[in-house]
Amino acid sequence: MTFFMQQLLRNLQTYIRADFRVDLYLSTTLLLAGLITFNYTLDFEDTYIDAYRGSWQRPVCYMLLYASAYYAAMLLWTYFHRRMDIWRNHRFWLHTGFGWVFYGFYAGFYGYNDWSRHLLDGQIYIFAFYCLSNLHSVVTLVLPLLLYYWFIDRYPSYFYGLKPKRDGLLVYATLLAMMVPVVAFASFQPSFLDFYPTYKDTMANEYLGVPEWVTALVYELAYGWDFLPTELMFRGFLLIGLARLVQKGDQTPGVVLPMVVAYASIHFGKPLGETVSSVFGGYLLGVLALYTRSIWGGLLIHLSIAWLMDGAAFLQQWFRQ
Question: How far apart are the C-alpha atoms of 25 and 297, rounded to whole Å?
Answer without folding.
Answer: 25
